[in-house]
Amino acid sequence: MPHEQIWQPLAEELNRWNHAGRTATFWLRDDDAVEPTAQLDRLLRLTGTFAIPTVLAVIPACTDEALADRLITEPHISVAVHGWSHENHAPADEKKQELGPHRLRQIILTELATALARMQQLHGQRLIPMLVPPWNRIDSGLLPDLGALGFETLSVYGPATPSPIRMLNSTIDLMDWHGTSGCHDHSLLVHGIVVQLQQAFEDGGDGVGLLTHHLVHDERAWTFLERLFETTLRHAACKWRSAGDIMAGSAA
């Protein structure tokens, strides 16, 4: 499919929002940050060039001051808590989980409290009180206790479901984990974004939550991000917002 034709459905959907006098919301979450790397630098340059607010889901047990120092000059970056150590505790015949029902509940809650405290110490005001479970999975029995630990929002992947804690989910994943392990076909990603926008247009939801993993991006992933930023930022009916602003219900 020709390059321009791939992106035409998104332009048409944003035109519909514009004609209705409405603005579509996009936000970006990138998972598995630990330390400064060439891939992280590339993400920071790209999102910084286009002024895209980005939340990095950082693994608390595996990170230190090096990452915090690297982010000092990146005002468009916030950080969230990506579990504790991103360690799988599920048996081999189940999907991977760190925060599943495979360990004592109090052990998990203690780890999450430690994780939040460590991230506050390292990142201060850059931290938002968002929990991003590794592999986007968490035992629902833990949700009622997250608020008491200090978390205000839970972010997994897929449609939001009824929950005792505010949910702000990613809805479009760039990576084809079960196929090529590279970036999804660009036309499929654009179609997915258009479907998300159509749903948000009808129900007033949180719009499009883009999920990326800078450490495993191929060139097609980087190319897609750049073109998406170019396409959306030049359209009056689109706004990239920070996760913190969406959590706070800010219209800014």
Rg (C-alpha, Å): 18 Å
Could you give the count of β-strands?
Answer: 9
- What is the CATH architecture term? Alpha-Beta Barrel
Q: Let me know the largest β-sheet.
A: 9 strands, parallel
Query: How many structural domains in the coordinates?
Result: 1
Report the span from N to C terminus: 37 Å
Query: Uncertain segments of ≥5 residues (pLDDT<50)?
Result: none
Task: Just give the CATH class.
Answer: Alpha Beta
- Strand percentage, roughly? 15-25%
Organism: Borborobacter arsenicus
GO biological process, one term: carbohydrate metabolic process
Protein name: Polysaccharide deacetylase
InterPro entries: CE4_u4-like (IPR049591), Glyco_hydro/deAcase_b/a-brl (IPR011330)
Give an overview of the whole structure:
- The chain is an alpha/beta fold.
- It has a single domain (3-244), classed as Glycoside hydrolase/deacetylase (TIM Barrel, Alpha-Beta Barrel), CATH 3.20.20.370.
- 40% of the residues lie in helices and 15% in strands.
- It has eight helices and nine strands.
- The chain has helices spanning 3-19, 38-49, 65-70, 105-123, 143-149, 186-203, 219-233, 243-248, and strands at 24-33, 54-58, 77-81, 127-131, 153-154, 166-167, 172-173, 208-212, 238-240.
- Strands 1, 2, 3, 4, 5, 6, 7, 8 and 9 form a nine-stranded parallel beta sheet that branches.
- This is Polysaccharide deacetylase.
- InterPro entries: CE4_u4-like, Glyco_hydro/deAcase_b/a-brl.
